[in-house]
Amino acid sequence: MAPHHHDAEMSGDYWEQRWAGADHPEAAAEHPYLQRELAGLTPGTAVDAGCGAGSEAIWLAAHGWTTTGADVSASALRLAADRADQAGVTVDWVHADLTDWAPAEPVDLVTTFYAHPEGDQLAFYRRLSDWVAPGGTLLVVGHLHHDGAHSEGDHSDGDHSEGDHPGPPEQTKVTADWISEVLPAGRWRIESATGESRSVVDPQGKTQRLHDAVVRATRTA
Ligand SMILES: C[S@@+](CC[C@H](N)C(=O)[O-])C[C@H]1O[C@@H](n2cnc3c(N)ncnc32)[C@H](O)[C@@H]1O
User: Fold this and answer.
1) What angle do CA 208, 209, 214 make, to 5 degrees?
2) How many A from CA of 50 to the centre of ligand 1?
């Protein structure tokens, strides 16, 4: 059973300050899950929720999706728009708090990568699931909670990073099972639900070990 997730410090102001600062987060390297989970789908309309500097939204647009990238931080969206221009792709960037905003009509694909707004994490995923049209897909990637099984079993201490990097806040972590539980069986088919570990090298050349919960589901009704 999932614990209650709530984090009063993940407000829109918090995220805008992070993205506006000189030491703002780097744009994410391309997620391996994009190709693995989405390459077999026929492109349609897509929303990337909490798109940050836009890596995933740009990937979707470059792979034929009519893409909206939405984020609460205007500074993040400026970075994202510059990167999309450099990549030569078109993305509709929406500046919005996703606990309020919703697309005008359901879309064929909703993705979210490590977006953790103020409030309950699983309630946020439930909200995003309502944006998916029947027949469409939801792809959620979150920080893996230590209760979640994953392929390498190497974080029994709950530390989700290496080197000098702090791990993600505890209350943002989820398991694939917890995400799956918010998708009722009568309306959703779970296509994949896994705990994963991978290494990324940051701009300073340090290796970070990341632990992810990844769920892809099809809306059946
Ligand atoms: C950890 S970053 C991840 C960014 C990107 N998806 C990635 O994987 O690199 C989380 C993102 O969620 C956004 N975010 C947090 N709360 C939000 C909210 N209530 N509405 C919209 N975006 C939000 C933040 O501004 C930030 O860009």
Assistant:
1) 125
2) 4
Task: Assess whether pLDDT exceeds 90 at residue 1.
Answer: no
Q: For 51-55, 158-162, 187-191, which range has the lowest pLDDT when averaged over its residues?
A: 158-162
Distance CA 170, CA 139 (A): 21
Q: What integer pLDDT is reported at residue 203 of this predicted model?
A: 73
Same domain for 174 and 76?
no
The residue ranking higher by pLDDT, 36 or 24, is 36
Domain identity same for 16 and 94 = yes
Q: How far is CA 198 from the centre of its chain?
A: 16
Task: Ligand 1: list residues with CB < 6 Å.
Answer: 10, 12, 15, 28, 50-52, 55-56, 71-73, 76, 97-99, 113-115, 117
The CA distances from residue 173 to 69, 168, 170, 215, in Å, are 23, 8, 6, 14
| 166 CA from centroid of ligand 1 (Å) | 18
- 137 within domain boundaries: no
Please tell me the total count of domains within the chain: 2
Q: What average pLDDT does this structure show over 105-125? A: 96
User: Is 180 part of a structural domain of the chain?
Assistant: yes
What is the pLDDT, as a whole number, of residue 90? 98
Say yes or no: 84 and 51 in one domain: yes
What's the pLDDT score for residue 212? 96
Domain that holds residue 153: 143-221
Q: Give residue 23 CA to ligand 1 midpoint distance, Å.
A: 16
